[in-house]
Amino acid sequence: METFKALIGRVAEGEKLPVEDARTAFDIMMSGDATPSQMGAFLMALRVRGETVEEITGGALAMRAKADKIPAPADAIDTCGTGGDAKGTWNVSTATAFVLAAHDIPVAKHGNRALSSKTGTADVLTALGVNIDCPFSLIQKALKEAGIGFLMAPRHHGAMRHVGPTRVELGTRTIFNLLGPLSNPAGAKRQLMGVFARKWVEPLAHVQMKLGAEKVWVVHGSDGMDELTTTGPSTVAELADGRVSVFEVNPADAGLPVARPEDLKGGGPEENARALQAVLNGAKNAFRDIVVLNAAAGLIVAGKAGSLKEGAEMAAASLDGGSAAARLAQLVKISNEAA
C-alpha cells in the first residue's frame, strides 16, 4: 500500500487522486496510522486545490467501511445535510423527517450535536425527550415501528476519533464537512441532502451516484441555507434513473408564501424543541412552511409524490392530522425502553 507521505506529496503537487487512492488515504487516517501534522497537511492540500468528486467518493467509501451499521429497509431515506451554513436557523431537516415517517417512509435520520449552529439534531431530539444514546436494538425497533430512528454520528463513526483533534486544530472546513451526510450508517439509498455552498450541489449528486444511491436531491438555498429555503429560490441537483439534472425551485412551486430570513431564525435546544413540537401539532407559521417545502421534496425523493405541489399537500395533511406528531411520540417512547 502506498505510504501516506507519498499520498501527501501527490496532492501537494496538485495531483487529483482517483477513488481508490483517496480511499486508501482516508483509511490510513481513520485507522490512526497518520500523525496530526500529516493529516492537517493532506486535508489542507485538498482544500486549497479543491476536492474532487473522486476524492470525496473515496473518503465516503472509507467512512462507510468503518461505520458501525444499522440494518434498515431498502427504501429508507435520510434528511441529513452538511450543516455549516451559519444561518442560525432551526431544525428543518429534523422536523421534515417526522413528516416523511408519517407517510410510511422509513427514515434513518443521521445527525449530530451542534457543531456550527446553536442546536443540532441530537440537541433538539434530546430536548424533545428522545434518548439519543439508546441501544442499537432500539434504533432498529424505532425504525420498524415508528418509521424513524436516530443515528447519532459519533456512535456509528468511532474511527473519526483519530481525525477529530486535527479538525478542531485546523478550525476551518475540510472534506470531512462533506463526508458526514454521505456516510449514513443504515446505507440509505435515498436522501434529501442540504449543502452549505452552491458550488457543491452538483458535484455531490455525482458522488451520490458513484456511491450507488437510487434517488437524491442535493439542495442549497439562495440565502445560503443548507435546506430548500422559503425566502427565495433554491438550487437542486437531482439524481434519478442514473442521471443528474440541475434546476431551481421556488416556494410558489409548492403553493407556499415567501418568508423573511428573520422568520426562520432558531435558538437553543429548548426553544427549537417547542417550535418543532408546535409545527408537528399543526401550528401555522413560517417554520411550518419551510418544513412543508422540504418534506414535499423528500416525498418526491421517496417516490410518494410527483410534484412539490402534491408533496406539500401531503405534508400539510400529516401535520394537521397529527400523524407526524404521533411518530415523534413513538420515537420518544421506544428510545426510552429497556433494551
UniProtKB/TrEMBL annotation:
The molecular function terms of the Gene Ontology recorded here are: anthranilate phosphoribosyltransferase activity; magnesium ion binding
Residues that bind Mg(2+) 2, according to the entry? D226, E227
Q: Which species?
A: Minwuia thermotolerans
Q: How is the cofactor bound?
A: Binds 2 magnesium ions per monomer.
The Glycosyl transferase family domain sits at: 75-324
| The UniProt record lists the keyword Cytoplasm | no
Boundaries of every Glycosyl transferase family 3 N-terminal domain copy = 6-67
GO CC annotation, single: cytosol
The enzyme's main class, written as a single word, is: transferase
Pfam families registered for this protein in UniProt: Glycos_trans_3N, Glycos_transf_3
Function of the protein: Catalyzes the transfer of the phosphoribosyl group of 5-phosphorylribose-1-pyrophosphate (PRPP) to anthranilate to yield N-(5'-phosphoribosyl)-anthranilate (PRA).
Q: Which PANTHER family match?
A: ANTHRANILATE PHOSPHORIBOSYLTRANSFERASE (PTHR43285)
Q: Which residues bind anthranilate 2?
A: R167
Needed cofactors, names only, are: Mg(2+)
What Gene3D superfamilies does the entry give? Answer: Nucleoside phosphorylase/phosphoribosyltransferase catalytic domain, Transferase, Pyrimidine Nucleoside Phosphorylase, Chain C
Q: What is its EC number?
A: 2.4.2.18
Keyword flag Amino-acid biosynthesis: yes
Q: Determine the domain of life of the protein's source.
A: Bacteria
| Residues bound to Mg(2+) 1 | S93, E227
Q: This chain belongs to which protein, by name?
A: Anthranilate phosphoribosyltransferase
Q: How does it assemble?
A: Homodimer.
Q: Where does this protein hold anthranilate 1? A: G81, N112
Q: Tell me the name of the encoding gene.
A: trpD
